Amino acid sequence: MTDLNLMRSLAQSNNTKIVLLVMDGLGGLPRELCGPTELESAFTPNLDRLAREGMLGLMHTVGIGITPGSGPGHLGLFGYDPLKYMIGRGVLEAVGIGEKLTDKDVAARGNFCTVDTDGTITDRRAGRISTEECAKMVALIDDITLPDVELIVKPVRDYRFVLILRGAGLSPALNETDPQKTGLKPLLVVPQDKSPEAKHTATLVNQWVLEVADRIKDQRPANMVTLRGWAREPGLPGYEDIFKLKALAIAVYPMYKGLASLVGMQLIDGINNLEDQLEALRRNWDSFDFFFFHYKYTDSRGEDGDFDAKVREIEKVDQIIPRVLELNPDVLVVTGDHSTPAVLKSHSWHPVPVLFWAPRFTRCNPDVTGFGESQCLRGALGQFNAASLMSLITAHALRQGKYGA
Amino acid sequence: MTDLNLMRSLAQSNNTKIVLLVMDGLGGLPRELCGPTELESAFTPNLDRLAREGMLGLMHTVGIGITPGSGPGHLGLFGYDPLKYMIGRGVLEAVGIGEKLTDKDVAARGNFCTVDTDGTITDRRAGRISTEECAKMVALIDDITLPDVELIVKPVRDYRFVLILRGAGLSPALNETDPQKTGLKPLLVVPQDKSPEAKHTATLVNQWVLEVADRIKDQRPANMVTLRGWAREPGLPGYEDIFKLKALAIAVYPMYKGLASLVGMQLIDGINNLEDQLEALRRNWDSFDFFFFHYKYTDSRGEDGDFDAKVREIEKVDQIIPRVLELNPDVLVVTGDHSTPAVLKSHSWHPVPVLFWAPRFTRCNPDVTGFGESQCLRGALGQFNAASLMSLITAHALRQGKYGA
Lengths: 405, 405
What we know:
The structure is a homodimer.
Chain A: H1 4-10, E1 18-23, H2 38-41, H3 45-53, E2 55-60, H4 70-78, H5 89-96, E3 105-115, E4 121-123, H6 131-141, E5 150-157, E6 160-166, H7 196-216, E7 224-231, H8 239-243, E8 247-250, H9 254-262, H10 274-283, E9 290-295, H11 297-304, H12 307-325, E10 331-335, E11 352-357, H13 373-377, E12 382-385, H14 389-396
Parallel strand pairs in A: 1-9, 1-10, 2-12, 8-9
Antiparallel strand pairs in A: 2-11, 3-4, 3-6, 3-7, 5-6, 10-11
Helix pairs in contact in A: 4-9, 5-9, 10-12, 11-12
């Protein structure tokens, strides 16, 4: 187990290149007792070759038996202890759409929802309105003003938006207003501690919600909002500071871009699919040291409970491996931020399969013939905590000095 | 993971005998993808037999992905957390030549170097002068006196010496004076904190360096000195206190003797080769419980990048195993303090192979047929942190009581 101060003290510059390829929710489970998992069912000749040349292992991104959310899962992957650093959803959404947060900001994630005439919620996601529709709704409310505070409202994706309050004396110690089921009304914001800041912020937010409700009451299907995930920017030390790495995040979805930006990775716009991602990787290869390459749909199909569709997503990623290798990375890690077994239709606690490829500095493991959970069990990396991943990565990239004389 | 207070509370006396045979830098890497490592290439019939009878594993002496220096590597082996206990080079060199340090001492490692007429360093190691030459140089400067402090200067090996300042109000918070490359002048000593002790010590050291420079300016090739590794004796609890073990270090090189003495092992002089070491082991068998037997040249040949020569050094150690077994040790552990793969020509982060032999108390592992990194991967000990090694050793030596009722 390593800590960030140790990493900072050992970090060395080099011109080696590192790719961290994350298939979100990669880890899976068999459909029947002792059957293959999604990864083991997938035809992955390229990943299998890398597994034979590299090292496999199973990684706990938060801890043994703990089911990680996307935030903690990625923080763990990135080398930050997710039990130490907590990041609220409001911050994730804000940085995910490129908003720069200051230390005077409090951010919340908002949902547009549908309420009936007496204000009871009938659809918590307003029929999952499109991102374009969401932007039109935000335009109706983004000029609301309140005393002593700057308000920033931005559409995120589908029915989701972000609300940022910027000013002195604010606090994120507020409850969420989504009652979590239909048939109930949105909740009042109440301070969660006794500080004057929380009381002040609660008063401001309730005022804002009333004004919003008034402005959109005649719209359909979105005619109300709920707020949750109140948070401040966490002030994490960044990749350049800790690891001497210039890092680029190549991701489609805002939340993963947001997570990456919190650790100082640079973001890139206009990425909509694997083709865009590969092109961005190629185009930026000379300008960065570390590339976080995020693929979402393995998790999405796991959440859907569609085993076969998740297998196909894994196979799509396998197909791009040769194009990543053409760039000659020194270290390529293929893993997930958590498991999302189709049979569970949700994130799970199962450790994540890791394929660590840096063959110049790897001992052979004749027991391994391909990439899959059972083979990872016998892998050279054993089972380890995500806190060790960045140490292994920087060591194999020859970017880490000796500890002590 | 165990801590020293737990070890102390469980330690029991017994008359069992323990040998910790350390091949420095034992762990290696293949020369080509999936080839054998140095250890796997070596013909080691004796170690292979012990591997079949005992247990194998892979050990992290500092942490996963961390490259240990010799000091932290050995401290880890000895059961002390190297991230908690830091030992400066000055102390290592001093105790390595048998100097007893007090809590009033500050020690530095010195190098003789060569400077040109304007004081610029042209050779940081003065042509690597011999130990004899070094002793002659030290004789020219070991009677320098300064007010309020006792000065001890001793030759170490080749161009290296040790400087000890003994007195009240000293501090090791000083910079090193070696600019780390030729073409630059030695640096002035500057206090590294605001304490009066650091200022006082810096003043004394600068005075001393000026006097040294004046005395040896006409010598060749050594006509100047640099100083580094300022440190105090760390005050580690010893082996007798923690483990109830009378321990003897049987090592050729000063630094390893120094490390052993810091944990309370007794040292022995006049050891120059394996034959001397075996004879010392035999002669002292009845007087000690624990024998730290250190073999340096596996690391040296790894650092040279000479794969075949490292293989031969491993084979030399294999050949002495029957003579160690003749003494009937209860526990024999064969391992390294870190890896030094010839392909890297340096210490590395790869976990160290461990052969743990105490066959009366070991379960059979039919997967293991010999000693090598790949077999260690399948070993009964798995991958573990060095903090657990002494617990395993004392347990198998029946020198450790039950924890709790």
